[in-house]
Design brief:
Residues 32-44 have a biased composition (Basic residues). With 129 residues, the protein is mainly α. 81% of the residues lie in helices and 5% in strands. It has 1 helix and 2 strands.
């Protein structure tokens, strides 16, 4: 038979109703302790899983940061290439300017030679007359 009493328990001196019959009380206490342990283990496992998830998230964030850094490096390389292209264009423009100057100088020299020849011809004509 199962007896319930509301006074203090004989075994543990707790002021709660306890079942007392051929060790049933102790089995209930053991089972409740087991349940508590299981709950604690489950909570610990859940915490560990959450920590692992957080670690994975951090790793993913780090990977994303690395990807962003690589993208920035690529952008910088592209900028450098563009600068080099601009420098080459400037060099080509300078070469063209130099060619134009040379052509102008040659034209001036030709004009001077023509003028000199004309002057010589005029002198010859003047001396003949």
């Amino acid at each position: 038979m199962i007896f319930q009493f509301w006074d203090a328990c004989v075994f543990c001196a707790v002021a709660k109703p306890h079942l007392k019959y051929n060790g049933e009380e102790r089995e209930e206490e053991k089972s409740s302790k087991r349940k508590k342990k299981k709950k604690k283990k489950k909570k610990e496992k859940e915490k560990e899983k959450e920590k692992e998830k957080e670690k994975e998230k951090e790793k993913e964030k780090e990977k994303e940061k690395e990807k962003e850094k690589e993208k920035e490096k690529e952008k910088e390389k592209e900028k450098e290439k563009e600068k080099e292209k601009e420098k080459e264009k400037e060099k080509e423009k300078e070469k063209e300017k130099e060619k134009e100057k040379e052509e102008e100088e040659e034209e001036e020299e030709e004009e001077e030679e023509e003028e000199e020849e004309e002057e010589e011809e005029e002198k010859k004509k003047a001396s003949e007359n």
